[in-house]
Structures are given as C-alpha cells and as structure tokens.
Amino acid sequence: MPFKKQVFISYNYDIDRHYKNLLVAWNNNSHFKFEMRDHSADTSVHSMDETVIKRTISAKINRGKYFIVLIGKTTCKCPWVKWEIEKAKELKKKIIAVKLDRTNKTPDELYGVGAAWAYSFKLESITNAIKKV
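Now predict its structure.
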C-alpha cells in the first residue's frame, strides 16, 4: 500500500463540510487514486475555552505534513480558518489552497506563502496541486 499523505483540512464547517467529506470519500474509494490520512478536527473540541480549542487544533495541524484549505464563498470571513492558516504557516506546513469556485475570494493569509493551488474542486486539480508542494 502506498504511503498516505498526512493532511489537515481547513474549511468553513458550517458551509463547506460536504466538500471535506467528499475528499474523505475519495480516499476511502479504491477507484480513486487519492490517498491521505486526515488529521482534521471533524468534531467540536469539547471546551468553551479558546486556549484549549487552539491547543487541540494546533496539535492536529502539526500531525499533518500538508495543510489543505478549502476556499468557499465565505472562507475569507471565517476567523477560525484564518487562524488555522496562520498556524500552518508558523508550523511550516506545505499549503495547498483549493478554490471550491474560481471566483471565491482568497483569504489574505494565503498570499505570499508559496501555496500550491487548485482552482477547482476536481480530483485531478487537487492531486496536481498536492504534487507541486
């Protein structure tokens, strides 16, 4: 079995989680050549303490070698995604930016970080971007 890429996927949970779930489905389907081990925070951290939440998410980001950020219509306004991008930069993760639609606004935190880009949510586009980092 080939080595699975260790990834953390950042996305606006309330709006774009079905795209994240599709990445997981591609990974689980043997008909797709897409392999990853997801370290994302899929369930809420059972705390109201922002410090605890950030510490938990930081550890999950740190476990991945790759940081994939899904850019939806409202991602640039999502404070948690912005924070996760900053944390990924701090931890020197390989960043892959995936635009769910080419017209979605890019979060400012992604400019100048050497991210690899997928300008559509298509398997080939995403796998090509991963290969570039």
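Helices lie at 13-28, 50-63, 79-90, 123-132.
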